[in-house]
């Protein structure tokens, strides 16, 4: 019990620190990095649910991110709905595409599934590039409205154009997302995903309808990725076809692998670590005048897989309770 | 209309032959080692850079032949190095996800390292025919393109001879069909792995020279051929060499026809549409052999 | 020729052989019997070096086999025809046979090829055909022919009659007897068909639960009640 | 009373007939052994009954319902559970989690209701659910591996992972349990333990069909036997009777050369 209280205390302290950060540090660039790291936390966590927990290798995850971003941006700009609703619409439309992609995945596995998902993302990227009337092609959609200000009283409202206020929106979104993932992963649903990942025929033999579970997990994962994309659209206020690119997916999976695939904390740690690491490397690049960042990414990915398969989180695994993280 | 059609089919066959050449190595490596290498197209990129240097040093025909040899050798060695350092340690605990991720890591490293070393500016490889074209009535094309077609067919022909006529070649095919039985024949599997990677990567290197000659040489040029090679490989069934050759031509022709009759912009997605349709109907590819149960 | 001392082997975590010792002398035909799961195939795989024992030794003439990789063991002339034939389905019959001779550098390959074609005329007819298109019996013939082309000193056959119709099974056994008698090849035969196998063996071992339950002369074992027990569990 | 019945069940793989017109019935409460030489089609028969693939011809009836083309997961929900020849436990889950995941009520709840429901659950992780854990522990104790509760399944000794698979199958509360070689790869002592477990399961009312090669095991526990040879049923009946059947002896020991 005291251990439990101790944990709760740490959690509360952590949350307090996260909320206090913008009050203490006013550097906009730092806050911008925090926001970007936060968006990646949502993305990596959603990829992790699909690939880490359910074992479905998805190499087209950026497509869901892009679909969310474009959907929300277009609905707000062309139809005029509120960006707040747009966030959810982004999630839902992306979830629908997740369901679509889930259909071929029922019969495919391993490399076949990996290529199909890449193909899915590439087709959508080309659509985003070439449906110029709708998406403005490779220029991207610019001038996306920010999240609408919330009017508290006639003279006072909260704007969401500053990094700081957006940071709070994102913080809440992340808490909700991670809360959902934690519940999902620890529930009957989560344990079923893990059993399906470990052994599909074994899971079938205890009554798991793997087809329906695959469809469900594709849909749920896509929803959160789409939501993250929509948040990004209204934060950056610019979406381009690059959002759907293979490079974006590779970033997501490098972060997750680095943090620890199939753990709750892994994607969070990986996203934050790599976002700040890449900024740190930007300094190095300025000094040596060489574009070394991506090379280091690649090496990190290789080294993680060869030598620390459970990622950074795995290094501290003796601090975890075994049931907690699914490993 | 008629001549445009023929013209596009010919163009498709030419580019398709290069796709086949890249895919053949990919599918061979998959067949023997069950490794699905996302960095395969980067072997072509490295091969193309090898050609850039050789051609700068040796002009004309000698340069061309020299660069083919240099590309095959350099990339073959690179293939062996990557096999030993990156893939071999994973073979004992193979899971699809680890192998796919590690090859993606390799892809990122090779692509960006070459950007560091060679710079991002695209380079051209010289045309030993001085851009001469030939008109054959129904279609016209540059001699260079015909030469590339001929050359990749010759390369595939040699590979075919090697795999069918030599003891070592048959051993490679045998290993890919039944690893256990191959062990019992006294085939040194580890040796076969190394050889397969050297061969598969070397051919990709040669394909890179051809690809670079037709288009341009730049650090990220490997990404598209990788994806194309995967499409081809899946069309043909992973591990199936004949399938890869047919798949390459099918994709090449489908792309050029689709590009001219449907939409130029979506040309690069045609292959993906095809494989998604194919996989929906046949989860192991058009010519795929059933996986053991 | 082959002597195995107290080896223990497991498949992953499943124990398969729990202390087996046996000997095969030059020129013998030794049969290894036992019900399914008794460890017969595992034993052959271990001799071939595909599996490694935790403890115990395997010696062939003066060589230690248990530390040797499979391809070197084949070079010593220890040839296995695996259970379920395991031919290369997309190699032609002829290519399959060539793979049998993979390790050989001597000039006798052509002669041996003639020999196996004489032995199995049907293989000659189908030499250009993919091995995957052969019937079960033909595939078994190919597997044995492939083994003969490896120039075996010790020839190990794992259930060569498995799943074959009686007529074809008898042909296969005739050939095994023939190569044993005419070519003087030492044979270690794993077989379910106890009567048939023991009838032509000099000695036999009964494996039970990963251990040698009984050994003796072939003729003695045929009528032994213990053999029935090992199979049927009386 | 028949709980499960097959009617001229056949399965062809390409040109090969693995199971040929096999008809048999499983009487409620019995242990039926399925034996036959290597390659006789035993596992194929179990795979047909458990819905891994559909038969080429013939029907399977379970409690009067035609279940011929149902998939494994549906059959499990109807009360048919199975184990595998090569264990298929969930390696990265702990021992108790392996059993817990089999206890999820999948008859009532599909993936969506489980996922949605989990978001509003206040009781915390499913693996900490007291009631479920107590039941899972009972099952683990029942097969004698209670002390390994929190061990990762992949670290289990082989004999115990086979028992874990049985416990997992029991957690789905089956009426019929299909066991595919439950004691292969075990030493004699472990085999005896396995026999005891299977008997206990049967005593609690579960009907069992078992493939086994270790004759001592099959003799000791089976009420009736079916013998397959080249995919065909060649004998059926009480063990003693089956064993003295010349056809069975011939299938096992082989006929004479001119057979």
How many structural domains can be distinguished in the coordinates of chain D?
Answer: 2
Strand content of chain D: 15-25%
Radius of gyration of chain D: 19 Å
**Strands across the major sheet of chain A, in which order?**
1-4
Give me the secondary-structure category of chain D: alpha/beta
What portion of residues of chain A is helical? over 70%
Largest sheet of chain D: 6 strands, mixed
CATH topology type of chain A: ABC transporter involved in vitamin B12 uptake, BtuC
Task: Please write the CATH class name of chain A.
Answer: Mainly Alpha
Strand order of the largest sheet of chain D: 6-7-8-3-9-10
Integer tally of domains of chain A: 1
Task: Report how far the terminal alpha carbons of chain D are from each other.
Answer: 39 Å
How many helical elements of chain A? 15
Average of the residue pLDDT scores of chain A: 87
Q: Helical element count of chain D?
A: 10
Q: What would you call the structural class of chain A?
A: mainly alpha
- Our measurement of the CA-to-CA distance between the termini of chain A, rounded to an integer number of angstroms, reads 24 Å
Supply the CATH architecture of the largest domain in chain D: 3-Layer(aba) Sandwich
SSE pattern of chain D:
EEEHEEHEHHHHEHEHEEHH
Q: What best-fitting shape of chain A do the alpha-carbon axes yield?
A: globular
Describe what this molecule looks like in 3D.
The complex is a heterotetramer of chains A (327), B (293), C (234) and D (259). Chain A is mainly alpha-helical and 327 residues long. Chain A has a single domain, classed as Orthogonal Bundle (ABC transporter involved in vitamin B12 uptake, BtuC). Helix content of chain A is 75%, strand content 3%. Chain A is built from 15 helices and 4 strands. Chain A is globular. In chain B, helix 2 (40-57) packs parallel to helix 4, helix 2 packs across helix 9 and helix 9 runs parallel beside helix 11. Chain B contains 11 helices and 2 strands. The model of chain B has no long low-confidence stretch (mean pLDDT 88). Chain B is mainly α and 293 residues long. Chain B has a two-stranded antiparallel sheet with strand order 1-2. Chain C is an alpha/beta fold and 234 residues long. Chain C has helices spanning 40-47, 70-75, 93-100, 109-119, 121-125, 136-149, 166-183, 194-200, 218-222, 225-232, and strands at 2-11, 14-24, 29-33, 55-60, 63-64, 78-81, 154-158, 186-190, 203-208, 211-217. Chains A and B meet through helix 5, helix 11 and helix 13 of A and helix 4, helix 9 and helix 11 of B.
Key traits:
heterotetramer; C: 234 residues; alpha/beta; 6-stranded mixed beta sheet; 4-stranded antiparallel beta sheet; 10 helices; D: 259 residues; Rossmann fold; 24% strand
